[in-house]
Structure formats: structure tokens, C-alpha cells
Design brief:
With 93 residues, the protein is α+β, with helices and mostly antiparallel strands. It is built from 2 helices and 4 strands, in the order ββββαα. Bound molecules: zinc ion.
């Protein structure tokens, strides 16, 4: 499947600004600090359901930075199933 380069968009979460970056590596959340800008990186080369879980996962790191990683994984899996079952998908642009 061909992937077009996606435009970077920004989102404000809990009062902090994050750029959403689409990349071909792992997902990661970089919280904004004095030396860093907020970034949520999403690997778009995996299946669509995995992308949905990654968005939830990295979003949880942004809004619940003290949450245990095991809990983040549990929630991305369960909420990913819910949103997928409810029909949530990315809009193709
Ligand atoms: Zn994580």
C-alpha cells in the first residue's frame, strides 16, 4: 500500500501542544518541556487497527504521564477494540 506524506497537525492535550507526526518507526510520545516540543509520533505502516491503538497509547502517555505502562497497554488494547467495533477509522484525505 502506498502512503502519502501526511501533513503535521497539532493538538492541545491538557493545555499542552503536541504535533502529531506520522513516521515509519515505532510510536512515541514526547512530552513538552524546556528543551523539547510536544510530539506524538505514530507509525502508519502497521495495520489500521494497530494505528488506532497507537494513537490511544501515545495519547494516554500525554494525558496520564504517571500511568503504569502495563495499564497504558491494557487501555490501548481495550479502548482500541471498542473504537474499532464502533466503526472509528481514519478519514482518507
Ligand atoms: Zn508506551
Amino acid at each position: 500500500m502506498a502512503h502519502k506524506k501526511k501533513k503535521t497537525v497539532k493538538v492541545k492535550l491538557c493545555g499542552e501542544t503536541y504535533s502529531i507526526l506520522w513516521q515509519q518507526l515505532y510510536g512515541v510520545c514526547i512530552r513538552p518541556g524546556e528543551q523539547t516540543r510536544g510530539e506524538i509520533c505514530i507509525n502508519y505502516t502497521v495495520p489500521e487497527k494497530e494505528i488506532l491503538k497507537t494513537v490511544i497509547h501515545e495519547g494516554l502517555h500525554a494525558v496520564c504521564p504517571k500511568m503504569k505502562h502495563s495499564e497504558v497497554y491494557r487501555l490501548d488494547k481495550e479502548l482500541g477494540k471498542l473504537l474499532w467495533a464502533a466503526g472509528y477509522r481514519r478519514v482518507k484525505k
